[in-house]
Amino acid sequence: MRKFFTLFVEYSTWLLFVLYCSIAFLFIRLQQDDVQHKLHNEGIEFSAAVNQQLMTFNSLFTLKNENERLMRVNTDLLSRVLTLETATVDERSQKKILADTTLNASKFIMARVVDRKFSDRENMLVIDAGWRKGIKKDMTVLVPEGLVGRVTSVSEHYARVMPLIHPDFKVVVAADSCRSMGILSWNGGREFIAQVEHIPISSHIKLNERFVTSDFSTFSIRGIPVGRVVRIKPDNLFYDVDIWLAVDFSTLTRVLVAPLKIEPEKIMIMSDDTVTTNKKSH
Prior knowledge:
single chain; 282 residues; alpha+beta; Thrombin, subunit H; 2 domains; 6-stranded antiparallel barrel; 4 helices; 12 strands; rod-shaped
C-alpha cells in the first residue's frame, strides 16, 4: 500500500493530467453528441415543415378539384330537380284539362305555352304545336275556364296566338240567359277586363251575367265562356258593358286548340251578293 501511495505521489502530476484530459474529452464528446442531436432534431423539424407545406399546396389543388367536381354534381342535381318540377307542373295542368267534364279533350290538340309577350297594348302567345300536329290559322285556342284567343300564324313546330287581350281581337258573344249578342273586344289597360259593344238598350242583361261565344263568330266554336258582367252603363242606343274575363292569362301553361271552324260559304255570303244574284239568274 505504501508503494502505491509513493507511486501516486510521484506521478500525481501525470495522473491529474490524464484525469483532466479524460474529463475534457468526455465534455467534448457530450457536447458533440448534443450538437448532433440538435442538428438531427432541427433537420426533422425542417423536413416536417416542408412536408406540411407540400401537403397544404397539395390539399389546395385537391380541394379545388373537389370543389369543381361538387359543382358539377350540384349543377346536374339542380337540372334534374328543375326537370322533375317542370314535368310535375305540366302533368298537373294536363290532368286538370283532361279531368274537366265540360270539354271532350280528345277532340282538341293539346299544346304548351312556351313564350308570351304581355303589355298594355300588344299581347301574344307562342305554343309548341305547329302544322305537323295539325294546327292551322284561325283555329280557336281555349282552356276549360274559357276562351284564350285564335291562331294567327303557324310554323312547323310552333304557332302564334293572338289572345283575347289584343286590340285587334274581336269575337261575337252572347249573354247566357237573355241571349243578347254583342262584340267582345279589349281596349288596353287591365288584362282581366274586356268590353262588349253593340248590345241594344232593350236587352235584359244584368250584373254577373255570363257571356259565351256565339254561333255568329266566323272562327270560334259556340258556347266557350269569355267572362261575366261587372259593369253596365247605358248609352243612347247601346249598353257599355265591362266583362271580367274567365281566363287568367298570367298563369297559362297548357291550352287546347279546337278544330278549325270551316264556314267558307257563310263568309262568302256575308261579304258578297253574287250568290243571290246568280241564284236569281237561274
